[in-house]
Amino acid sequence: METIRRTKIADLLKRRDFGAQVCAKGWVRTRRGSKQVSFIALNDGSTINNVQIVVDLAQFNEELLKHITTGACLSVEGELVESLGSGQACEIQARKIEVLGTCDNSYPLQKKGHSLEFLREIAHLRPRTNTFGAVFRLRHHMAMAIHTFFHERGFFYFHTPIITASDAEGAGQMFQVTTLDMNQPPRNEDGSINYDEDFFASPANLTVSGQLEGELAATSLGAIYTFGPTFRAENSNTPRHLAEFWMIEPEVAFNDIVDNMNLAEDFIKYCVKWALDNCADDIKFLNDMFDKGLIERLEGVLKEEFIRLPYTEGVKILEEAVRNGHKFEFPVFWGADLASEHERYLVEEHFKRPVILTDYPKEIKAFYMKQNEDEKTVRAMDVLFPKIGEIIGGSEREADYEKLYKRIEELGIPMKDMWWYLDTRKFGTCPHAGFGLGFERLLLFVTGMSNIRDVIPFPRTPRSANF
Ligand code: 4AD
Ligand code: MG
């Protein structure tokens, strides 16, 4: 018998040419039935939906049937038939079944309804579940949306380094990269480590942001974006922090803070709309399983204009809430770095829609932000989202060489690390602005998942780098 080319299940389920001979390959999700007939739900990852395989047991040998267990990998050929059962339009009446891979009964995904915590311990297998299939398909779609958004607007995708000797955010929470022997590092006469013998002949780290190099590109190519992994060794064990996360950082010459806010708002709305348009099945599943308000929240964001508000006004609202008896865990006062409970109060309780806070105190923001005339605040902007808090952080950049130089000095950032960055302000400086979107924070929003560990295939967090 001639072999038939495999069709992906996503495509099979759309077909109505009943009677056609088809081939599907995938993993058994469930098998049920009677002594005469088995119904196999087969999934190949192309869609959240399974194709039902109907097996007339009398036509197959027992040895083969024994191996059709949950998790086993099958190749099935047969006739595409109209399904009489509810829930699917078509199914396959099996004519030939090959077990490509058996699956023994130690397979941990036998039953439905494992906790997300348990599934994190088997992160190597969790993409086989409906939930993580949906999440990782959405992850792909968001990446495509991001590249398309910027490409359509004439931005260039620019690759900034992963290994760097500079600390863009001045946060000092970097992972060091070295080939020195940790047990016996070469030392200088004063006992300090002799980095001249290290691979790069200087201390090096994993990047916390591609922004500074992105600015070099924006002030030459005009409009660029980065999209890559970033690393932060902050010991924050929260549902919103990862030690390794992906960030998208557009940077645009001649944009001011208002252009920057417009870009951020358009960008997020574009991504959310893409998800609703292209991932309806997966979003519906996540909505029904985990978060009954998901679809409504996604549609809500598209409809509403984001609130734009100076930090100082935001703090007034929070102080007023405290006076009216609202309890926050962390104190609010002008100058405080807002905690996610404060951000979420503004978004979820007060305005009931996304908020862009601007003009933060300079002490709590990075050195490169444009200084306002009040000498107290900088042209920063954070985009705050329901359920998440900060999803984007950005600013207009300080374009003035003298002001920037002075700020770097004030903060004690070593000038020897900054000369190349300062060159942008020396050689044809221009106003420019940009921001960073945390890719996994966006995914938290579009999937409705509540822990950031569940929107990246292999999460890296304090004390955990498995798989
Ligand atoms: O606000 P951040 O630190 O801004 C920057 O890195 C700037 N260089 C961006 C720029 O202007 N080009 O980080 C940007 C975003 C945050 O708003 C958040 O969404 C995400 O990155 N983020 C994290 N996501 C997951 N885990 C972490 N530890 C994160 N830290 C920041
Ligand atoms: Mg930030």
Hey, roughly how much beta strand do the residues contain?
A: 15-25%
Distance between the termini: 42 Å
Bound molecules: 4-amino-1,4-dioxobutan-2-aminium adenosine-5'-monophosphate, magnesium ion
DSSP, total strands: 16
Instruction: Sum up the overall morphology in one term.
Output: elongated
Mean pLDDT over the full residue set? 95
Low-confidence stretches: none
Strand line-up of the largest beta sheet: 6-10-11-16-15-14-13-12
User: Rg from C-alpha positions?
Assistant: 27 Å
Assembly state of the chains shown? single chain
- Look at the helices and sheets and give the structural class: alpha+beta
Helix amount: 25-40%
Largest sheet: 8 strands, mixed
Helix count equals 13
Q: Spell out the helices and strands N to C.
A: HEEEHEEHHEEEEHEEHHHEHHEEEHHEH
How do the strands and helices of this protein lay out in sequence?
Blueprint: H1 9-12, E1 21-33, E2 37-43, E3 51-56, H2 62-66, E4 73-82, E5 90-101, H3 116-121, H4 130-152, E6 156-157, E7 163-164, E8 176-177, E9 204-206, H5 211-221, E10 223-231, E11 244-253, H6 257-278, H7 280-289, H8 294-303, E12 307-310, H9 311-323, H10 340-351, E13 355-361, E14 377-385, E15 389-396, H11 401-410, H12 419-426, E16 432-438, H13 439-447
Helix pairs in contact: 4-6, 4-7, 6-8
Bound molecules: 4-amino-1,4-dioxobutan-2-aminium adenosine-5'-monophosphate and magnesium ion.
The site of magnesium ion (MG) has 2 residues, from β15.
Describe the protein.
By secondary structure, the protein is an alpha+beta fold. The model has no long low-confidence stretch (mean pLDDT 95). The two termini are 42 Å apart. It has helices spanning 9-12, 62-66, 116-121, 130-152, 211-221, 257-278, 280-289, 294-303, 311-323, 340-351, 401-410, 419-426, 439-447; strands spanning 21-33, 37-43, 51-56, 73-82, 90-101, 156-157, 163-164, 176-177, 204-206, 223-231, 244-253, 307-310, 355-361, 377-385, 389-396, 432-438.
